[in-house]
Design brief:
two-stranded antiparallel ribbon, 3% strand, binds heme C, Cytochrome Bc1 Complex, Chain D, domain 2, single chain, mainly alpha
């Protein structure tokens, strides 16, 4: 009975040293209550509606252009959001109030590259 297991190399405890990287449940406590309609979450809007075409919250180009650091003036941004562009971007003039569009423009102006 010659069972030759000599070639089997046992790596010292290295494998076991990798302890269970247990997924620490991170409860995002950042949920700020939105008490009234004046709190219009543009970030959320970009994560959904606009994000299909304006990537990363408007920081990067998608099907549409990057919005961060736009050289367009407010009037241009406003009319683009309200009227859209045929074949390129839907019109949102019926969807948002002027005040909400103001907030969208403010959001675009405040966009900064993500840290890290
Ligand atoms: C179906 C894709 C699509 C969606 C959805 C979309 N956009 Fe656009 N958007 C575009 C395209 C394409 C352009 C460039 C149009 C052009 O050629 O002038 C654009 C242009 C713009 C501009 C003008 C910026 C510039 O430099 O030309 C703004 C502001 C803008 N979008 C905001 C929004 C906002 C806010 C939303 C969500 C409410 C949104 N877009 C949703 C495709 C989209």
């Amino acid at each position: 009975m010659k069972s030759n297991l000599g070639t089997m190399t046992l790596l010292p405890a290295a494998a076991l040293a990798v302890s269970l990287a247990c997924g620490v449940p991170v409860h995002a406590q950042s949920a700020t209550p939105a008490p009234d309609q004046e709190t219009f979450d543009v970030g959320q809007l970009f994560a959904t509606t606009c994000g299909w075409c304006h990537s990363d919250g408007g920081r990067a180009a998608g099907k549409g252009p990057q919005l961060m650091n736009t050289t367009r003036d407010d009037a241009y941004l406003r009319s683009r959001i309200k009227s859209g562009k045929s074949g390129a971007m839907p019109a949102f003039g019926e969807t948002f109030s002027d005040a909400q569009i103001d907030q969208i423009i403010t959001y675009i102006r405040q966009l900064k590259p993500r840290e890290g």
